[in-house]
């Protein structure tokens, strides 16, 4: 497996490798000059045909079965249902004319444009670089990873979206709108699984022996390989894998059923956060803080995983991650506060909490794991922030749907979207669950529409690649939930 060499951002076809720098957190971001050029305009006009956004599922929606909780006949059975939804309502998100018009609006003035043309790679070179970015991986089973192909018009399918055969035990939530992914590369899955176990056991002493089965059952290797199909090496995949394990270790040990509790969570979270966002203090107090980073599994895991990440990331990528983790920790705190007082939030309040207690820190490292950088100012654009938030929200509601029965069976009342809808909107469990599917589907469609609009408004290679990376993460996340029958079981509503 070709798998060593320096990590860190690069766009191999466009940028030489930067020289190594002394301090990892002082690395120079590799940001190629990617200004939109007149040649790109021509390319774009042909690139973005109308996008079809499928309508919400025709079956089984809450609307279809509203007030029919006790009428079994009103709800189709799983075997009669499509695994994915045929296309319906067409949203012409991007027409070629609109793409060209918008690109013209964003064009530099004449002098700048002239200079851009002079400094531009020739047309064939540029087109082929952009096409490579948009085309994504090639070969059998990679079609769904192409931004260009994903944003092509979808004619109404006579049959459900072509999905790989799914064993009954790994059935998708009926009526869920999602994209199947190619089977993750087994050689990579095996290698990531081997290395992550070695890291967990030897480097951070993550779990006692009796939790080994749960660690294996989590299948983090499969998860991360599915979510990062463009990672250049296994070393890059390991950046995401260590963080994923660390994030889950903290959630389990501080918040959930491996010793977690809402009581005192704020203090524990803040101290663990210093493993990501270092404490700067006087000489007297430094040793105690350093010692604290070794004092429990979540802190050991955060500290080690973040060390590897900082070594590979640019300073702004590392800071992006810290910000996303602060968001996550704030979400944990709101969930804990509600658990302590027994408060069931309104549905929108729950969704707002879940926007923070969210997978967001995982898709937003897609560029570091891919070995390139989405520059900070492009990441900070409001339209990019909306894409990221919608992607995170869709992925997290996927978790609420797949983990519904696990959470129903856990001690106490565990809030998730179906539970909150049932309580606050006075629906039976099944209708509430079906409504939660509708909420997910609308979020997923909104994510795809927002990504398509951004791809049109800002068609720079790192933006397009990042959007593709986030979309791949969303799809891989769904696939992991669907296939992780060790952890999740679907409810019997069909
Ligand atoms: C990987 C990561 C950033 C996790 C943070 C939050 C988190 C654990 C989730 C969004 C998953 O939700 P949940 O806590 O409900 O997980 P399970 O349902 O127990 O798998
Ligand atoms: Mg859950």
Automatic annotation (TrEMBL):
Coiled coil ranges: none
UniProt superkingdom: Bacteria
Signal peptide: none
Stretches the record annotates as Disordered: 1-32
Reactions the enzyme catalyzes: (E)-2-methylgeranyl diphosphate + H2O = 2-methylisoborneol + diphosphate
Entry cofactors: Mg(2+)
The keyword Lyase is assigned to this record: yes
Xref: InterPro entries: Isoprenoid_synthase_dom_sf, MIB_synthase, Terpene_cyclase-like_2
Family: Belongs to the terpene synthase family. 2-methylisoborneol synthase subfamily.
NCBIfam families hit by this protein: f2_encap_cargo2 (NF041167)
UniProt name for this protein: Terpene synthase
Organism: Streptomyces indiaensis
């Amino acid at each position: 497996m070709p798998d060593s060499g320096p990590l860190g951002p690069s766009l191999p076809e466009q940028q030489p490798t930067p020289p190594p720098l002394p301090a990892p957190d002082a690395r120079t971001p590799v940001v190629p000059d990617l200004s939109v050029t007149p040649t790109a305009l021509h390319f774009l006009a042909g690139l973005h045909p109308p996008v079809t956004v499928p309508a919400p599922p025709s079956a089984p929606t809450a609307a279809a079965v509203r007030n029919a909780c006790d009428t079994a006949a009103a709800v189709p059975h799983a075997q009669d249902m499509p695994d994915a939804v045929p296309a319906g309502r067409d949203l012409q998100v991007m027409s070629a004319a609109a793409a060209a018009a918008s690109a013209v609006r964003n064009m530099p003035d004449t002098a700048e444009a002239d200079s851009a043309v002079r400094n531009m790679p020739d047309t064939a070179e540029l087109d082929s670089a952009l096409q490579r970015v948009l085309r994504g991986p090639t070969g059998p089973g990679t079609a769904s990873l192409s931004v260009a192909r994903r944003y092509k018009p979808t004619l109404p399918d006579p049959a459900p979206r072509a999905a790989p055969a799914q064993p009954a035990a790994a059935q998708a939530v009926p009526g869920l709108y999602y994209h199947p992914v190619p089977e993750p590369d087994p050689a990579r899955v095996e290698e990531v699984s081997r290395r992550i176990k070695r890291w967990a056991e030897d480097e951070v002493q993550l779990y006692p022996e009796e939790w080994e089965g749960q660690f294996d059952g989590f299948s983090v290797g499969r998860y991360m390989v599915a979510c990062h199909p463009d990672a250049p090496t296994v070393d890059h995949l390991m950046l995401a894998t260590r963080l994923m394990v660390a994030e889950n270790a903290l959630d389990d040990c501080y918040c959930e059923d491996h010793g977690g509790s809402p009581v005192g969570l704020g203090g524990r979270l803040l101290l663990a956060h210093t493993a990501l966002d270092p404490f700067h203090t006087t000489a007297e107090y430094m040793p105690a803080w350093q010692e604290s980073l070794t004092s429990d599994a979540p802190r050991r895991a955060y500290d080690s995983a973040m060390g590897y990440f900082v070594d590979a990331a640019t300073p702004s990528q590392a800071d992006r991650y810290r910000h996303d983790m602060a968001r996550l920790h704030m979400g944990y705190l709101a969930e804990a506060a509600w658990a302590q007082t027994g408060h069931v939030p309104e549905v929108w309040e729950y969704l707002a909490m879940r926007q923070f207690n969210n997978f967001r820190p995982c898709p937003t490292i897609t560029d570091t794991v891919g070995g390139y950088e989405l520059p900070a100012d492009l990441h900070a654009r409001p339209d990019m922030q909306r894409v990221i938030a919608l992607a995170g929200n869709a992925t997290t509601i996927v978790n609420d749907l797949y983990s519904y029965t696990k959470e129903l069976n856990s001690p106490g009342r565990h809030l998730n979207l179906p539970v909150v809808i049932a309580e606050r909107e006075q629906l039976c469990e099944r209708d509430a669950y079906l409504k939660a599917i509708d909420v997910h589907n609308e979020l997923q469609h909104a994510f795809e529409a927002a990504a398509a609009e951004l791809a049109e408004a800002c068609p720079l290679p790192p933006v397009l690649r990042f959007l593709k990376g986030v979309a791949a993460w969303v799809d891989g996340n769904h696939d992991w939930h669907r296939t992780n029958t060790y952890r999740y079981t679907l409810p019997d509503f069909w």
